[in-house]
Amino acid sequence: MDLLRRLLARTRPVLDRVGPAVGRQLTAAGVALQTIVAVLAVGLVVGAFVVSKAGGPAYATAEPGDPLRLRMPSLKVTAPVVPIELRSDGVLDPPRDAQEVGWWDGSAQPGSSEGQTVITGHTVHTGGASMNKLLRLGEGDRVDVVTKRGAIRYEVEQVSTLSRDEVASQAEVLFGQDHGDGQLVLVTCTDWNGSSYESNVVAVARQLGMVPTHRKAKAGGD
Fold first, then answer.
1. pTM above 0.85?
2. 2-16+44-210 in CATH: which number?
3. For residues 49 and 95, what is the distance between their CA atoms, to the nearest angstrom?
4. What are the CA-CA distances from residue 56 to residues 2, 63, 205, 208 (Å)?
5. Where do the structural domains in the chain lie, given as residue ranges?
6. Rounded Cα distance, 108 and 36, in Å
7. Which of 129, 1, 2, 7 is nearest to 72 (CA)?
8. Which of 60, 149, 159, 211: CA 20 to 30 A from 42?
9. Which one, of 178, 203, 201, 130, lies nearest residue 33 by Cα?
10. Distance CA 96, CA 90 (A)
11. Three-state secondary-structure class, residue 166
12. Pick from 189, 187, 185, 177: which is nearest to 205 by CA?
């Protein structure tokens, strides 16, 4: 619930300004969010914050780009990222391979300064899926999203377990694109009851920036 309170606090000024027009301004994302909630309800995963603190490592300004890989070093997980979109019938297709994760291409590109990057993936109760250990992420852990432009680093701020009803009721806060400052949202299922998943793990991470690359000088001069 701490996660929901913090996210609601960040978005409250926006909601107060928009007032009755909220429904109209969020129409573009509404169908997709409803679909994500529906998918989460049957056990799929669906699934962010901004620039390094003084005294920490220097990160370059992030350049937005489509994600290629998701790295969670503390979990020893590296997963290919594939784009996922809504079908004509309003269904959000996840990657078939549980080793892959999906970037909802209606959400912000990694490195964007606005919106939220939503990355999803399956949890498999028998083990082996890339998102199975998401609940083990801790505050301060680093997560990298690799694009063609380089690796964009995020710092985990909160990992929470939410019921399906909580995810559904807070869909706009968790997945909406009118707030977020480029944060990363990772979501997967948890609490297997023998036939289905009862809850979702939601990890939120703030964006630090682009990880600098250092090229080695060639030996022997030119």
1. no
2. 2.40.260.10
3. 25
4. 26, 20, 16, 10
5. 2-16+44-210
6. 15
7. 129
8. 159
9. 178
10. 18
11. helix
12. 185
What letter does residue 212 receive in the DSSP assignment?
A: P
For residue 134, which amino acid is it? L
- In 77-193, which ranges are E strands? 77-84, 101-104, 116-120, 142-147, 150-163, 183-192
* Contact of 148 with 183, CB cutoff 8 Å: no
CA atoms within 13 A on the CB side of 8: 9
pLDDT, tens digit (0-9, with 9 covering 90-100), for 174-199: 989 999 999 999 999 999 999 999 99
The total of other beta-carbon atoms located within 10 Å of residue 177's CB is 21
Do 61 and 112 contact (CB within 8 A), yes or no?
no
Q: How many CB atoms lie within 10 A of CB 113?
A: 14
Cα 120 from Cα 47, distance rounded (Å): 4
Q: Encode pLDDT of 58-114 as tens digits.
A: 899 999 999 999 999 999 999 999 999 866 754 456 788 999 999 999 999 999 999
Using the 8-state DSSP alphabet, how is residue 148 labeled?
A: T
- Tokens representing 76 are 């020893």
Q: Give SS3 for 91.
A: coil
Residue 207, helix vs strand vs coil: strand
Interior CA angle at 90 toward 87 and 92, to 5°? 65
- Structure tokens that stand for 16 in this block: 């107060």
